[in-house]
Amino acid sequence: LAVERDKITVDILAEGKKGILGFGAQKARIRAALRKSAVELQPSKPVASRTNNQPAPSAEAAETGRKAKAVLGEILGLMGIASEVELKTGDKPDEIVLEIRADTSGLLIGRKGQTLEALQYLVTRIAGERGGIEGPHIIVDIENYRERRRRSLEDMALRLGEKAKRQRKTVTVDALSAADRRIIHAALQDD
Q1: How many CB atoms lie within 10 A of CB 24?
Q2: Residue by residue, what is the 3-state secondary structure of 24-74?
């Protein structure tokens, strides 16, 4: 509402729920309104638009990339890992890729990429905070792991898809992360 917190009233319509293992989770619902005194005192403002003093989207992405690189370097330093982080542009215009070069790649990747995902989450939360505005997508990678993992999952999906068709039975796999499931679904979408 473009005013300070003390100039609005907030009513909680429904409290959020965590759910169990992510199932049954619900977001909180609120209603926010300007207090009467704030409405009377506040002059009407035109809708905000990009002005010359606001950075362009590419400048915002570059700034976010520099911040993300510094954050990742700091995290790796605190972990005691000697490494070098290289900032690259991704396949899409809104992607920032942070490529790590270190001797301890297995440690940084973790089991099925879990440590790498955790690092990416932390860096995104710290460097990507922009007050609710959608920013560039930050990807943390090491030794081209993400591409190798994508190819491996696609091969597995196609192989298991053929097995399911051949046996005419449902084939199950171990639990996968949301990102891995997306890769599987994309590989099998035309099958």
Answers
A1: 9
A2: CCECCEEEEEECHHHHHHCCCCCCCCCCCCCCCHHHHHHHHHHHHHHHHHH
3 state DSSP class of 137: strand
The residues, ordered by sequence, that sit 6+ positions from 45 with a Cβ below 8 Å of its Cβ are 2
Q: Within 10 Å of residue 109's Cβ, how many Cβ atoms? A: 21
Contact 176, 188 (CB under 8 A): no
Q: In this predicted structure, what is the pLDDT of residue 48?
A: 42
Q: Give the Cβ contact number of residue 85 at 10 Å.
A: 20
Written as six digits, the tokens of 38 are 């704030």
Q: Which pLDDT tens digit goes with each residue over 90-99?
A: 888 778 899 9
Residue spans of beta strands (DSSP E) within the chain: 8-14, 29-34, 83-89, 95-102, 137-142
Other beta carbons within 10 angstroms of residue 52's beta carbon come to 5
User: Cβ–Cβ contacts within 10 Å for residue 167, how many?
Assistant: 9
DSSP reduced 3-state for 148: helix
**pLDDT value at 188 more than 50:** yes
Separation in Å, CA 130 to CA 51, 64, 69, 126, 134: 18, 9, 16, 10, 8
Instruction: Say which range, 18-27, 71-80, 172-181, has the weakest mean pLDDT.
Output: 18-27
The arithmetic mean of pLDDT across residues 122-144, rounded, is 80
